Amino acid sequence: MNSILFPCFLTTFAGLSTMFGVIPIYWSKYQEGKIIPSCLLFAAGVMLTISFSSLIPESFFLIFETNMWFPSLLWLGIFIVLGILFSSKISQKIEEKISSNYLYRLGLVSVIALMFHNIPEGITTFLSSSHDLSLGISLSLGIALHNIPEGISVAVPIYYATKSKRKAVFFTFISGFSETLGAILAYLFLSPVMTSFVLGAILAVAAGIMFHISFYELLPTAFSYPITRKKLLCFFVGVILMLFCHFFI
Predict the structure, then answer these.
(1) 135-150 as b/e, with b when 16 or more CB fall inside 10 Å?
(2) I want to staple 41 with a disulfide (CB 3.0 to 4.6 A). Which of 18, 48, 235, 244 is the partner?
(3) Phi (first) and psi of residue 164, to 5 degrees
(4) What is the residue range of 198's domain?
(5) Segment holding 146, helix H or strand E
(6) In this model, does residue 73 exceed pLDDT 90?
């Protein structure tokens, strides 16, 4: 039992670091017109970098373990497109319910995207920690750092859409706790049956969802506000931060 508790703790720590993303909603001195586009541009930089530097390469190599390179690329493309279509459909369904509140819809779609991203992350962290504790610790630290800006992408739009800190904190918690859900699923069901192809497919779908959110939700919403160089810089800060986490942690 003790061998299970510490991997669960590491996975939960990595997931709930997302909660640090709620900090910007307490910066009351900043105007809505400044903080929203800045945080959305930052979140877009984060999501696109995660997709290109982590999700897509990892997905390809996982699928490649059981396929030749061309079928692997084909499967990768199919699952990315499925992720885009899935995100688009979810966004459309949410819009039908809350069409008058664009930021709220954006926040909810981001929650779904991050859950698709965090559940496989939780599975990976749990299984890695179970087999090699030092690897699990370093992996959880890296994930914890890049989960903070992911939390921003959920908390900021939901807070400014609803003016409710409680809702922003709740949905940020849900997106982070999904990492622990991944650990639970890994322990109860998935570790004996999870194949590299299935995990690769999940990661590719997550990348597709993040593409859709970034190009169709985050960036258009951010550019609907007046954009200055300082705000635009937030996008590149998100890119650089994620590249640092990916290559040096």
Answers:
(1) ebbebbebbbbbbbbb
(2) 235
(3) -115, 110
(4) 2-248
(5) helix 133-162
(6) yes
The total of structural domains in the chain comes to 1
Q: How far apart are CA 84 and CA 89, in angstroms?
A: 9
Query: How far apart, in whole angstroms, are the C-alpha atoms of residue 112 and residue 208?
Result: 12
* Residue pLDDT, tens place only, 98-108: 656 777 877 88
Alpha carbons 14 and 62: distance in angstroms, whole number: 23
| Number of residues assigned to the chain | 249
CB 52 within 8 A of CB 179: no
Paired tokens of 89: 């459909």
The first and second tokens of residue 153, run together, are: 């992408």
145: tokens are 């750092």
Q: CA-CA distance, 143 to 147, in Å (whole number)?
A: 6
111 in Cβ contact with 174 (< 8 Å): yes
CA 94 to chain centre: 19
* Integer Cα distance of 237 and 148 in angstroms: 13
Helix axes 32-50, 133-162, angle to 10 degrees: 150
* pTM score: 0.73
Q: What's phi and psi for 68, nearest 5 deg?
A: -75, 170
